[in-house]
């Protein structure tokens, strides 16, 4: 036994454990800011390398990208319009993450939100905007929330891998929307698979003279504020964070983990539903298949890059919205395909998730120090 | 629908295409069995299949030979597996998130490179394809001969891989070690097994096998690359692993279910039933969902998806 304890570096360490703890905390706080910056820079460098290796000029590509992001008022509005659904879904992913849920069902939740909102926006007539718009948003929320119930239940109750179930739900939702716009919702004469336009009374107002910027961005910011208040200022938010930090401890302290997770998953899906609804009501006006393709997955990068914090999600949402808007003009400038945006979001996720190991650095150094002292 | 029509759905042709549809999933799923047995959950199978499919075509176009294409694809997949391994084994990142990021990159990068290399042409680049080779004698067996032994060589390789992986996992010392690592890595390390090394090997094998499955799509079933052509097969493979209880033979049988699902979907479409084709496309996904939910089990390797810390680095 004594032999064992001399080998245990923590016990024999000359290092004050409290000091170590403070060090770790300071490190973590620093990393909240450092990791996203490094991740974005690394992704940009990697992307430049990729652009270079396929024979294009990274400088020209980036200039095209940036001018497409904020080149003029119209581009800026476009960036913000692309950012709105990414922020809303990103908030959804972030809030789920806080409670230990990895919701990658965004594609499906967005699709269902769009579907529900379109139906309400097209077929409920004769009500003023002030009622119709909230009703459509609510329908979108319900659509997204309903679509997240099944994966949420089987994860929270039986621990079934949330990713497999949500990805399957994504594919099913996409098929459902495709079938709807080619069938029941098809606008005659049906040359194109799309629904009728939503009624004037259901459309989100444009909020910037001379551009296409719609109120979706305001909804996203409002959602971020509510997110902040609930997560950091209410008992429910505290419970959510407890469950996310340490499930076992949360269970033992009497929290109803199952109920919290179900609720959280539905909120998360509902935010995705609002993202889909806002896109239909503000930008596209009618339902088409895959009307926000890939946004559900890119929202993951938005949430992780934003460090699961509402403010961070807003900032990284603008960044990714810019990538979306600028990607198109980059494509025109250099003929580089838009798919590059997906690569960047994947790389950023990897950077952020792999950087977790860095927070262990102080502990590792301390241990090294201790074993030298022993 | 009449009974006759239903029966004709299950013809010799149906079982033939079931096998054809199932074998790429089998390859990916066997890789996943080995990886999960070593304690790593690879949700990035899709991406590795995409790399296999894409680089398979690149290789076949470069060397003018389907076999060289397959080799190129497998090497690319194994490299992706090694990178996945580095991130989840050495850097101990969350395996689910990493796998998802891989899938995003896998779709994005292959689409990107395909556009850059081949542009957007009306006619996609066609490469030399694996040809069907009926096996002598075996293919003369009535009914089953055609169903099982009248395929291209990659299908036969899939049969062999099922057998070899079973022997590898349950009859060799390396298989035993991999299983030990998946159940109780700490105990395994105590008796001197290098956990990291075996997990890396498993990741390499899994990446290579998934890429083989992907290249089967682009080099055997088709003769070209199509965007997102893995079409969720990586997830069917994951479900098949659960269905087959982490045993190669069981998993291969589980894959047959998904092959059949695909085959049914195609034949029902051909029958002109009054079901929206888009809903039929969703059928295999519904099947996967049901399998994952209904056949959930506690038989999974105990250390699955848990990052491991070497004894030496333990605080």
Description of the molecule:
The complex is a heterodimer of chains A (374) and B (315). Chain A is mainly alpha-helical and 374 residues long. Chain A is built from 16 helices and 2 strands. In chain A, helix 7 packs antiparallel against helix 12 and helix 10 crosses helix 12. The longest helix of chain A is centred in the first third of the chain and has 37 residues. With 315 residues, chain B is mainly α. Chain B is built from 14 helices and no strands. The longest helix of chain B has 27 residues. Chains A and B meet through helix 7, helix 8, helix 13, helix 15 and helix 16 of A and helix 5, helix 11, helix 13 and helix 14 of B.
Largest sheet descriptor of chain B: none
Regarding CATH, which class of chain B?
Mainly Alpha
- The domain count of chain B comes to 1
CATH third-tier fold name of the largest domain in chain A: ABC transporter involved in vitamin B12 uptake, BtuC
Oligomer: heterodimer
Helix-strand category of chain A = mainly alpha
Mean pLDDT of chain A: 89
Number of helices of chain A: 16
| Structural class based on helices, strands and sheet pairing of chain B | mainly alpha
Kindly provide the radius of gyration of chain A, computed on alpha-carbon positions and rounded to a whole number of angstroms: 23 Å
Of all chain pairs, the largest interface belongs to: A-B, 51 and 43 residues
Share of helix of chain A, binned: over 70%
List the helices and strands and how they pair.
The complex is a heterodimer of chains A (374) and B (315).
Chain A: H1 2-7, H2 9-12, H3 17-53, H4 58-70, H5 73-98, H6 106-123, H7 129-158, H8 162-182, E1 194-197, H9 216-233, H10 235-245, H11 247-252, H12 257-284, E2 286-288, H13 295-305, H14 310-334, H15 339-354, H16 361-373
Antiparallel strand pairs in A: 1-2
Helix pairs in contact in A: 3-4, 3-15, 3-16, 4-5, 4-14, 5-9, 5-12, 5-13, 5-14, 6-7, 6-8, 6-12, 6-13, 7-8, 7-12, 9-10, 9-12, 9-14, 10-12, 13-14, 13-15
Chain B: H1 3-9, H2 12-37, H3 45-63, H4 66-90, H5 95-118, H6 144-149, H7 153-171, H8 173-183, H9 185-190, H10 195-221, H11 233-243, H12 248-271, H13 277-281, H14 283-294
């Amino acid at each position: 036994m004594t032999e064992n304890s001399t080998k245990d570096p923590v016990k024999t360490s000359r290092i004050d454990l409290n000091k170590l703890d403070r060090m770790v905390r300071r490190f973590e706080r620093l990393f909240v800011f450092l990791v996203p910056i490094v991740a974005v820079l690394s992704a940009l460098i990697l992307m430049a390398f990729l652009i270079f290796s396929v024979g294009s000029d990274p400088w020209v590509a980036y200039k095209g990208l940036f001018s497409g992001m904020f080149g003029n008022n119209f581009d800026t509005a476009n960036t913000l319009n692309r950012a709105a659904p990414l922020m809303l879904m990103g908030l959804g992913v972030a809030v789920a993450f806080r409670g230990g849920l990895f919701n990658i069902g965004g594609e499906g939740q967005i699709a269902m939100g769009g579907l529900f909102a379109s139906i309400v926006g097209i077929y409920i007539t004769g009500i003023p905007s002030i009622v119709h718009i909230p009703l459509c948003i609510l329908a979108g929320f319900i659509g997204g929330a309903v679509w997240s119930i099944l994966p949420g239940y089987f994860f929270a109750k039986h621990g079934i891998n949330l990713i497999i179930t949500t990805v399957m739900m994504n594919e099913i939702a996409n098929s459902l929307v495709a079938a709807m716009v080619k069938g029941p919702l098809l606008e005659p004469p049906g040359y194109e698979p799309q629904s009728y336009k939503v009624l004037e009374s259901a459309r989100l107002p444009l909020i910037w003279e001379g551009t296409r910027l719609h109120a979706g961005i305001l909804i996203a910011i409002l959602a971020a504020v509510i997110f902040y208040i609930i997560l950091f200022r209410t008992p429910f938010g505290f419970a959510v964070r407890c469950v996310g930090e340490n499930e076992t401890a949360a269970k033992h302290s009497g929290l109803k983990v199952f109920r919290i997770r179900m609720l959280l998953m539905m909120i998360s899906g509902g935010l995705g539903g609002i993202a889909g609804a806002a896109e239909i009501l503000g930008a596209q006006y009618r339902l088409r298949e895959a009307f926000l393709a890939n946004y559900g997955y890119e929202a993951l990068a938005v949430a992780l890059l934003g460090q699961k914090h509402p403010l961070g999600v807003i900032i990284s949402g603008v960044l990714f919205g810019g990538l979306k808007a600028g990607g198109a003009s980059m494509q025109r400038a250099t003929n580089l395909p838009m798919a590059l945006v997906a690569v960047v979001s994947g790389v950023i996720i990897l950077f952020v998730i792999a950087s977790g190991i860095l927070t262990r650095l102080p502990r590792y150094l301390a241990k090294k120090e201790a074993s030298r002292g022993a | 629908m009449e009974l006759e029509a239903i029966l004709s759905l299950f013809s010799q042709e149906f079982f033939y295409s079931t096998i054809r549809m199932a074998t790429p999933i089998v390859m990916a799923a066997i890789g996943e069995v080995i990886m999960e047995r070593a304690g790593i959950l690879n949700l990035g199978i899709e991406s590795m299949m995409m790399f296999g499919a894409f680089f398979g075509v690149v290789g076949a176009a470069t060397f003018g030979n389907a076999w060289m294409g397959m080799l190129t694809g497998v090497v690319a997949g194994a490299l992706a597996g090694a990178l996945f391994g580095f991130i989840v084994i050495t850097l101990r990142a969350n395996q689910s998130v990493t796998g998802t990021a891989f899938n995003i990159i896998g779709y994005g990068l292959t689409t990107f490179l395909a556009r850059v290399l081949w542009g957007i042409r009306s006619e996609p680049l066609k490469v030399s394809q694996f040809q069907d080779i009926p096996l002598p004698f075996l293919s003369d067996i009535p009914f089953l001969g055609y169903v099982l032994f009248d395929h291209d060589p990659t299908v036969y390789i899939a049969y062999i891989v099922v057998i070899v992986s079973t022997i590898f996992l349950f009859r060799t010392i390396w298989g035993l070690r991999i299983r030990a690592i998946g159940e109780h890595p700490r105990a395994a390390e105590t008796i001197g097994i290098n956990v990291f090394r075996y997990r890396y090997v498993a990741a390499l094998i899994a990446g290579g096998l998934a890429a083989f499955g992907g290249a089967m799509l682009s080099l055997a079933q088709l003769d070209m690359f199509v965007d997102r052509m893995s079409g969720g097969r990586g997830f069917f493979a994951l479900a098949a692993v659960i269905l087959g209880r982490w045993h190669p033979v069981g998993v291969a049988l589980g894959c047959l279910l998904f092959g059949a699902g695909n085959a049914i979907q195609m034949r029902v479409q051909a029958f002109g039933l009054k079901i929206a084709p888009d809903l039929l496309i969703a059928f295999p996904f519904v099947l996967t969902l049901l399998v994952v939910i209904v056949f959930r089990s506690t038989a999974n390797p105990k250390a699955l998806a848990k990052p491991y810390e070497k004894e030496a680095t333990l605080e």
